[in-house]
Amino acid sequence: MQPQHVAPRPPSSATDVDVEQAEAALVEHYPRLVRLAYLVLPPGLGRGRRVLTAHALVQRALPRRRASGPAIPTQSKGRDGDPGYAFVRRQVVRTALDAGLPLRRAAWPRRSQLPPLLPQVWGLRLFPRSGGAEELALDQRLAALSGPARAAHVLRGLERLQDGAVLRVLRSAGVADPDAALREAGTVPAQYALFESPAFDPCALQARPTDLMRRRRHSRAVLAAAAALAVCGALVALPGGGWGPDGAAAPSYARNPAAEAALDPGRLLRVAPAAWKSSSRTDFSVWPARGALAGDSALLRRALAVWARPGGNVRVSGTPGTPTGGPAGPPQLLYAGQVDNARVVILYDGLRIARYAEPKDGTQGAALDFARVDGATAAEAGAVVLGRSDGNVRYLTAPWVTKAAERDLTKPSAGAMDLDLTGGITAPLASPAAQTDSCTSWNVLQLTGAEGTSLLTDLGELVPARLTTGKPTAPHEATGAKSLSAWAPFACSLADARAQGVRSVNAWQYAEQSLPDASGTAAWVCTRAETWRGDGPRVLAQFHTPGGTYGAVAARAQDVPACGTRDPHVLAGVLWKSQTGSWYLLAAGSRDTASIRTTGGVHASTRGSLLTARTTDGAQAGLEGTLEDGRPVSGLR
Predict the structure, then answer these.
(1) Per-residue pLDDT at 65
(2) Residue 251 reports pLDDT greater than 60
C-alpha cells in the first residue's frame, strides 16, 4: 500500500452544526455512513476489524457540544444540502484516514488507530458477505491506493460527488494534497455500482463462532495458559513458516468420535473409477478420486481440519444460501493435486462441494470455497472449477466426459475450439467472470460424453451454470445451431447472474412482433436464472431488433414465478424509436395471453398477446394482461 499523507487537522467546525441535527443525519443515513467508513478504512485491518471499526467511527462522529444551526432537513430533501450529514461524513472520512496512519513511537496514537473499545461482540466473528470476482478485484485495487486516494475514489463512487466537492471534503478531513489523491483515484476503473454490493455492506453481516467450548468450560486463567501453550506449540510445529498437522485451521474446540471421524483422511470416501457406469445416479456422488496428491494424508488432513474450523487467516466464501460449517461425517474425495501455484483439494458431502487451496510454497494462508450442489443432474454435475489464474479458468470434469471445447456464445457460427483434456482436467480457457469492461465475447465450456452434450458458463462460482433454451416446462440443452443462435444476442446479459448461486439459465423466445414503419420483426426473449437454493431466481425480459448485435433488457425481476415452470407466462414492454423518428410503446406476452392494456401515461389496449401504441419519448406506463383462462398477468418491471 502506498504511504498516505494527512495534514494537521483544520480547526473544527463542530459549532456550526447542532448536535441534534447531526444525530438525525447519522441515524437516517447510518448504513451509508458505515459503508463509507468500511471502504475508506485500510483493507489490511482485515474484514472483521474493519466492520467493528467502521461502526465505531460512525458512532463517534457526532459534535461534542450544541450550537445554533439551521433546522433539520426533511427526509424528502435527502443528503444533499444537509449540513448535519456533511459534518458527519467529514468526521467519518477524517477518522477513517487516521486509522490508516502508522503508529509512531514519539507520538500518542489517535483513538481511531487502536482497536475499537465499542462496539464489541463477544464470541462471534462478524464479516460482510463474500462478493464475486468483480468485488474482489475492486477491493484489491482499493487496497493498492493510498488512504486519501481511496477516500477520493469512494466519495466519487458511493457519494456521487463531483471532483470539486471531493476536494473540499478531503481538505476538511486534513488531507495535505487532495489534488494528488484525486489523480491517484482516477487510476482505478469507475465501477461505482459495485460499491452497493453486499460484499461492502458492514450492516449485513455473517457470523461465525470463536471459542465456544473453551469459554464455557475454562476460567480466564486457563484460557491465558491455553493461549500461551497454543503459541508455543505453533512455534514448534511450524519451523520456518511451514504447515503444521492442521495447517491454517483454528484450535480444536472439543473431542468427540463423530468430529474426529470427519477429520480422519483415512476415512474419506473414495469411489471406484468405473462406478458411474453401473450407478443409477449421475451426479457428484459417482465421481472418482483423482489427482497426483490424492494419497497425501498430510494435505488431506489440513483440508479437513480447515473445513471443520477455519482459522483467522483463511478466506472463506460460499454461494448464497450455502452453509459453510464442517462436514457431518467423512466426506467424499473428488480431487487432490497441484493447480498452478496452489495445492487444491475438492471434497463433496452430499450437499456441498468444498474447495480447499493452499500456497504450494508452504506460506501461511488458505482459501476455502463452498457451493451447494444437492439434486444435481448429469449436466449440472459436469464440471467443477479447479483454479483461476490470469483471467483463465481450469475445470475438473465428470468421469463420463470424453471431450471438452470452448466456444464464444456471442458468435454461434464460429464453431467450438477443442480443449486438451488430461485426467479429467481441461486446459485453461478465458473466463467471462473476470470481464469488467465492455462485453464483446462470452466464452462457455462445451462438454460431450456418455450423458450427452451440454453447455456451461462460469459465473464466478465454484460450479458453472448450465445453459438451456426452450419453454420453461420443457427446456433442453443449448447446444444445437438454433439454440446457439437464440442465445447469441443475450449472452452478455449473463453478467447479471454472477455470484448469485445460479444452477441454470434458460432462454425462452416467447414472442415475435412486427415493428411499425416496416422495420422488420423483433424477438422477445425471457432469460431466467434458477438458483441451487431454490429461491431468488432472476428474470430478464429482453428485446432484440433485426440486425442488432445485442438484446436490450426491457424488464427485470427477482423472486417471481414468471418465466418459470410454475408460471410459464411473461408480459413486458419497451419504448422504441423507429427509423422515421416516431416513438412507440411495444408490449408482448406469451402465446396464451388473451389481452393487454396499459396504465399510467399511455392509454391503449389490444386483444391478443401483442400491443403497439404510438406515444412520446419518456412516456411512463404500466402493463396489465389477461390469460386465456381468465387469470391476470402483470408486466415485469
Answers:
(1) 58
(2) no
pLDDT of residue 486: 92
Of residues 369 and 65, more confidently modeled: 369
Q: Of 175, 164, 172, nearest to 16 (Cα)?
A: 172
**Alpha carbon distance 258, 186 (integer Å):** 54
Cβ atoms within 10 A of the Cβ of 347, count? 24
Q: What DSSP string describes 452-513?
A: EEEEEE--SSSSPEEEEES-TTS-EETTSHHHHHHHGGGGGGGGGGTTS-EEEEEEEEEEEE
Q: Which residue has the cell 450427452?
A: 452
Phi, then psi, of 356 in degrees rounded to 5: -105, 135
| Phi/psi-derived region of residue 268, left when phi > 0, alpha when psi is between -120 and 50, beta in every other case | beta
Q: Can you tell me the distance from the alpha carbon of 401 to that of 419, in angstroms, rounded to the nearest whole number?
A: 12
Highest mean pLDDT among 66-80, 259-273, 274-288, 432-446: 274-288
DSSP code string of 82-115: -HHHHHHHHHHHHHHHHHTSPP-TTSPPPGGGSP
In three-state secondary structure terms, 259 is helix
> What's the whole-number average pLDDT of the chain?
83
Is 396:428 a contact under the CB 8 Å cutoff?
A: no
d(CA 17, CA 68): 7
| Cβ contact 123:166 at 8 Å | no
What pLDDT does residue 368 have?
92
- Name the percent of the chain lying above pLDDT 90: 45
